[in-house]
């Protein structure tokens, strides 16, 4: 397919910025500047950016556990983003929720449960609102290959299919649930996509390290969901570059395999190379984009670090409001 | 007019459905079938299949979808049929519904009501007879309501539907057929009862008896018997169990200096356990004796009906306990 240069550059910007954000997060964590726990999604940026490039205003999002890329892409301002992660009053819940609960309702973010999978039907409910209001929006549900094994995910699929609601179930399969490989926990190679037919849903499996391929696969499916044909499944194949958490030694997997993924399937590096070859992007432009975003991040981090924290007299705020 | 508790629930649902098109009802067997207790009969015909919907047996999806619908602008009043089935979707209620606004920020309004038919039902057995209020009292953020009469049921359910915070609304099954005389002009006046407000059901001076749900009529019966013996019991119905109206209850205890709690749920770690702990922490100097707990025996509900009745407090159990306090 042929795309406008602006669109290609936007996709590149999305994966570049989310990569920089992921790397920044692990750097901050290593410097002990993050109070809680983080779960890096480095290497998976194209899966999120490719699927989310199909979104339009009014859509809803149930964000994934490896939340950095998607939270930023759907509109969480960097000040709010770092405010919440650094547990400051400038975060969306003033530091009450943390990294598992990023985002703003005004951007269509539905929230997320730290008990992964318990939130599976939340986009189904948002799709009920879309249906009641007669809009052509969709609700995205992001899940990993680990939580995709949970019962609530299948109950959500049953209900969405039964009521033919506009929900896009997106499984970002990074091959690992903490230490357990997807091939061990799933009897089928595509954890969610191979089960879609049982719920009468179309599905597509895409290379989640290729932002254009992900976008192309996702856009056909999302278009069908928008048109009122009921829910569907997208499965993005990728690889979790880092451990489940920072400090995870990954003794359960072969470092040579990880290295091969990083060398051969780096979504940012590969797309950058293609765009430069096609004359869509120059190395100088890419460099400037990196520098610009680096300074934006530094500014937001400085704001967040200087921001006040909630105090004991505010601990009950937001309960029974 | 004579109104049953069940009809009051139906009328509250109908009035709110007519008042606000954002209110929707869904759950297992609520549409054509009209709910297993007949409470939503006729609603599918009146409001249509988008506002009154049957779900598959998918409790986690019923709760989860209600969150998504509520935060995006609808006001789902969902039902889980038996209260016992809250345990199937415990995480969705305990982690998600209760904590959602706190974790994500106050802009995440959550106007949703989880209706459930609670308590014993003459032979329903161990998994269809539970009271779950005490399980969810451990879940800050959730409002828990258990009405004890038709008037309260209607006014409280209307308030629950209008609330922007999530409400677990427990309906004692054995009360569905109980009747109450309510003047027409009051019943039909679109009245509401604020959440978080207890009600003194009978004034008294010797003992404060905090009674919940099905136990309220039994407490009133016991109070009547005790009055004949010269013992004056004040019966206080919290109506909203969380957050609790401590002001009304404490005011009563400051007057009577004796307190008992009666509930239909199991005794251990029950509502009474929590209230007794709060009373001794906060009202120690006001109490002239130990706080008494009257509750179901700590057994799974037996299927045998006479044993079911034996395991749950009746008016005589309440009378005996209160006599022993004086």
Walk me through what this model shows.
The complex is a heterodimer of chains A (321) and B (326). Chain A has one domain: 3-Layer(aba) Sandwich (Rossmann fold), CATH 3.40.50. In chain A, helix 1 packs across helix 2, helix 2 runs parallel beside helix 8 and helix 4 packs across helix 11. In chain A, a hairpin with a 2-residue loop joins strand 4 and strand 5. Chain A is α/β, with parallel strands linked by helices and 321 residues long. Chain A has a 5-stranded parallel sheet with strand order 1-2-3-7-6, sandwiched between helices. In chain A, 43% of the residues lie in helices and 10% in strands. The mean pLDDT of chain A is 97. By secondary structure, chain B is α/β, with parallel strands linked by helices. Chain B folds into 2 domains: 186 residues, Rossmann fold, CATH 3.40.50.970; 127 residues, Rossmann fold, CATH 3.40.50. Helices cover 38% and strands 21% of the residues of chain B. In chain B, strand 13, helix 10 and strand 14 form a beta-alpha-beta unit. Chain B is globular, with a radius of gyration of 19 Å. The mean pLDDT of chain B is 98.
Any descriptors?
heterodimer; A: 321 residues; alpha/beta; 5-stranded parallel sheet; 7 strands; B: 326 residues; Rossmann fold; 2 domains; 7-stranded mixed sheet; 5-stranded mixed sheet; 14 strands; 38% helix; globular
């Amino acid at each position: 397919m042929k795309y406008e240069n602006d669109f290609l550059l936007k996709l590149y910007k999305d994966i570049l910025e989310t990569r920089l954000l992921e790397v920044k997060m692990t750097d901050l964590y290593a410097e002990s500047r993050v109070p809680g726990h983080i779960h890096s999604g480095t290497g998976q940026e194209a899966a999120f950016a490719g699927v989310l490039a199909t979104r339009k205003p009014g859509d809803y999002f149930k964000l994934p556990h490896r939340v950095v890329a998607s939270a930023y892409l759907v509109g969480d301002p960097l000040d709010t983003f770092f405010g919440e992660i650094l547990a400051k009053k400038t975060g969306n819940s003033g530091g009450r929720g943390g990294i598992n609960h990023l985002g703003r309702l005004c951007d269509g973010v539905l929230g997320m449960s730290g008990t992964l999978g318990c939130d599976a039907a939340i986009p189904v409910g948002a799709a009920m609102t879309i249906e009641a209001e007669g809009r052509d929006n969709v609700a995205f549900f992001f899940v990993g290959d680990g939580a995709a094994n949970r019962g609530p995910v299948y109950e959500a699929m049953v209900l969405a299919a039964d009521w033919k609601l506009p929900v896009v179930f997106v499984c970002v399969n990074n091959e690992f649930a903490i230490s357990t490989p997807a091939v061990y926990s799933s009897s089928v190679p595509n954890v969610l996509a191979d089960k879609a037919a049982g719920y009468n849903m179309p599905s597509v499996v895409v290379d989640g390290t290729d932002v254009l391929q992900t976008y192309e696969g996702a856009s056909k499916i999302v278009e069908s969901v928008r048109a009122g044909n009921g829910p569907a499944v997208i499965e993005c194949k990728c690889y979790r570059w880092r451990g489940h958490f920072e400090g995870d030694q990954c003794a359960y997997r072969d470092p040579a395999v990880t290295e091969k993924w990083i060398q051969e399937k780096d979504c940012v590096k590969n797309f950058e190379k293609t765009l430069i070859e096609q004359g869509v992007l120059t190395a100088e432009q890419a460099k400037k984009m990196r520098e610009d975003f680096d300074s934006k991040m530094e500014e937001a981090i400085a704001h967040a670090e200087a921001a006040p924290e909630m105090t004991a007299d505010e601990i009950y705020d937001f309960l029974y409001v | 007019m004579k109104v049953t508790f069940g009809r009051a629930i139906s009328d509250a649902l109908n009035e709110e459905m007519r008042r606000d098109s954002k209110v929707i009802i869904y759950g297992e067997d609520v549409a054509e079938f009209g709910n297993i207790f007949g409470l939503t009969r006729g609603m599918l015909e009146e409001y249509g299949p988008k506002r009154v919907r049957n779900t598959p047996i998918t409790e986690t999806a019923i709760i989860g979808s209600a969150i998504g619908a509520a935060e995006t602008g609808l006001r789902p009043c969902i039902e889980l049929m038996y209260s016992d089935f809250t345990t199937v979707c415990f995480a969705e209620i305990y982690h998600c519904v209760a904590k959602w606004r706190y974790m994500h920020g106050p802009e995440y309004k959550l106007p949703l009501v989880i209706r459930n038919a609670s308590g014993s039902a003459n032979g329903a057995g161990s998994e269809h007879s539970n009271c779950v209020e005490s399980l969810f009292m451990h879940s800050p953020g959730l409002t828990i309501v258990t009405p004890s009469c038709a008037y309260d049921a209607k006014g409280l359910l209307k308030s629950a539907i209008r609330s922007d915070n999530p409400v677990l609304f427990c309906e004692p099954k054995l009360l569905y057929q109980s009747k109450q005389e309510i003047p027409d002009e009051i019943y039909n006046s679109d009245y509401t009862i604020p959440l978080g407000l207890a009600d003194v059901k009978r004034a008294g001076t010797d003992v404060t008896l905090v009674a919940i749900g099905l136990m309220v009529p039994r407490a009133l019966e016991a109070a009547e018997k005790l009055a004949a013996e010269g013992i004056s019991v004040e019966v206080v119905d919290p109506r909203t169990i969380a957050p609790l109206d401590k002001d009304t209850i404490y005011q009563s205890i400051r007057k009577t200096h004796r307190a008992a709690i009666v509930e239909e749920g199991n005794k251990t770690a029950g509502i009474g356990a929590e209230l007794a702990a709060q009373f001794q922490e906060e009202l120690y100097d006001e109490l002239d004796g130990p706080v008494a707990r009257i509750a179901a025996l700590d057994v799974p509900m037996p299927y045998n009906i006479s044993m079911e009745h034996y395991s749950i407090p009746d008016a005589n159990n309440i009378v005996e306990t209160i006599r022993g306090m004086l």
